[in-house]
Design goal:
The complex is a heterodimer. Chain A is mainly α. Chain A has 4 helices and no strands. Chain A has one domain. In chain B, 83% of the residues lie in helices and 0% in strands. Chain B contains 3 helices and no strands. In chain B, helix 1 runs antiparallel to helix 2 and helix 2 packs antiparallel against helix 3. The N and C termini of chain B lie far apart (37 Å). The model of chain B has no long low-confidence stretch (mean pLDDT 86). Classes of the chains: A mainly alpha, B mainly alpha. Chains A and B meet through helix 1, helix 2, helix 3 and helix 4 of A and helix 1, helix 2 and helix 3 of B.
């Protein structure tokens, strides 16, 4: 029962993550694509945690931790260094 | 499940080559490294996945955006 529920959650998270790809590929502005990337990052993070829970390996949680920190750094770099709209300073 | 992830990586990599907007290409490249983290984890290499998450998703995005800002050009012809 537990394995079945974990499999269903993994497949749904994978389908939802692939569902953000049209917004990432076809989004009219760059900020639309950035929001789609952020959504995809959150879904993939949930997938990594659920996959680590399904495989019962503690080492797999470290991948989720490292990705969370550096993914936030990447999103922060894109929002800070690429000026959407008017100049900041 | 692996085939779906590979199809997503292929579509995103082709889009990264074809896009004219450089910021959108960097966002697409970051999504490629994000899906390859899942792929490396699924084929059983968590250490490679950690390195890819640190370098591919974080540092290379930062360096590409920095280079685009220094270059001062948002689109290519």
């Amino acid at each position: 029962m537990r394995d079945l529920i974990l499999q269903i959650v993994q497949w749904s998270l994978l389908v939802l993550g692939l569902g953000t790809l049209p917004a990432l590929l076809l989004g009219p502005t760059s900020s639309c694509r950035l929001i789609a990337l952020n959504t995809l990052g959150g879904i993939v993070l949930a997938f990594l945690v659920v996959y680590s829970l399904a495989q019962a390996k503690t080492l797999y949680l470290d991948v989720a931790l490292v990705y969370d920190i550096f993914g936030f750094l990447g999103i922060l770099a894109i929002t800070r260094l690429s000026r959407f709209g008017k100049r900041i300073r | 499940m692996t085939e779906l992830i590979l199809a997503g990586i292929l579509v995103l990599a082709i889009a990264c080559l074809m896009l004219k907007d450089l910021i959108a290409a960097v966002v697409s490249l970051s999504a490629v490294s994000l899906l390859s983290v899942v792929l490396f984890l699924k084929v059983g290499a968590p250490d490679v996945a950690i390195t890819e998450a640190a370098v591919g998703a974080g540092v290379s995005t930062l360096i590409y955006i920095w280079a685009i800002r220094v270059m001062g050009k948002r689109k290519i012809r």
